[in-house]
Design goal:
Largest sheet: 7 strands, parallel
Strand content: 15-25%
CATH architecture: 3-Layer(aba) Sandwich
Distance between the termini: 45 Å
GO molecular function, one term: oxidoreductase activity, acting on the CH-OH group of donors, NAD or NADP as acceptor
Shape: globular
CATH topology: Rossmann fold
Radius of gyration: 17 Å
Family: Belongs to the short-chain dehydrogenases/reductases (SDR) family.
Keywords: Oxidoreductase
Protein name: 2-hydroxycyclohexane-1-carbonyl-CoA dehydrogenase
Structural class: alpha/beta
Number of helices: 8
Pfam families: adh_short_C2
Helix content: 40-55%
CATH class: Alpha Beta
Strand order of the largest sheet: 3-2-1-4-5-6-7
Length: about 250
């Protein structure tokens, strides 16, 4: 495990976009925390990256606090937080979507982002050294897709939370920004993306005619967390191949 670099905590980083983000920070020499509700998967990723794995359920404030205590004890205080943990949990129109699906998505995507931000930001304020927070949103916050309204509503709320957090935390030297991907090829979306008709339907909405890979997302996350973005806060940047243009 690296003994230099910043302490970077990435939620939901045992797979998909979160894993790619953790890999990118580790490659840059940072001390990465692979934080995930799936501890076995987190341990596997952390072993590959030379990182620290912690069990973190973003819906449970007690486990979030316990995970932060463990990170602080083993690596030091968190300097960069990436709120990546999120899910769709199913689809359905407004009148058909089960309440439990809606509640699950709100609990993870919105309340989870709020809970982890609240806990980590409080530590950053106490330490007095500033910090950077990057929230993973979605262009769905601004472009509706029938059947995904529950998910998109939580991402719109994450965007609002990003802006409010940026204002409230600015005086402490803590910057808060967001990254809003369009469709990304990950294990979670592989079934859809490997269906030629479904993939063509998605790509037809994208001017660059390409589904993003995780490698298309990570550079912006690292930039927003870096000193090169020292005067950027409260912004949410889309990485969508131009999809929001059409």
């Amino acid at each position: 495990m690296s003994t230099t670099g910043r302490v970077v905590l990435v939620t939901g980083s045992a797979s998909g976009i979160g894993r790619a983000i953790a890999e990118a920070f580790a490659a840059a020499g940072d001390r990465v925390v692979v934080a995930d509700v799936n501890r076995a998967a987190a341990d596997e990723v952390a072993a590959e990256l030379g990182a620290l794995a912690v069990t973190l359920d973003v819906t449970d404030p007690e486990t979030v606090a316990a995970a932060l205590d463990e990170v602080t004890e083993k690596l030091g205080p968190v300097e960069v937080l990436v709120n990546n943990a999120g899910l769709v949990a199913g689809g359905g129109t407004l009148v058909d979507l089960p309440f439990e699906v809606f509640d699950t998505v709100v609990s993870v995507n919105l309340r989870g982002t709020f809970t982890v931000t609240k806990t980590v930001a409080a530590q950053m304020i106490k330490n007095g050294n500033g910090g950077a927070i990057v929230n993973i949103s979605s262009i769905g916050a601004r472009q509706p897709t029938p059947g995904l309204g529950h998910y998109e509503a939580t991402k719109a709320a994450v965007d609002a939370l990003t802006r409010t957090s940026a204002i409230e935390l600015a005086s402490y030297g803590i910057r808060v920004n967001g990254v809003a991907p369009g469709p990304v090829y990950t294990p979670m979306t592989a079934g859809l993306m490997e269906n030629p008709e479904a993939r063509e339907a998605w790509e037809s909405r994208i001017p660059l005619r390409k589904i993003a890979t995780t490698a298309d997302i990570t550079p912006l996350v690292l930039f927003l967390a870096s000193s090169a973005a020292g005067h950027i806060t409260g912004t949410v940047v889309q990485v969508d191949g131009g999809q929001l243009l059409v």
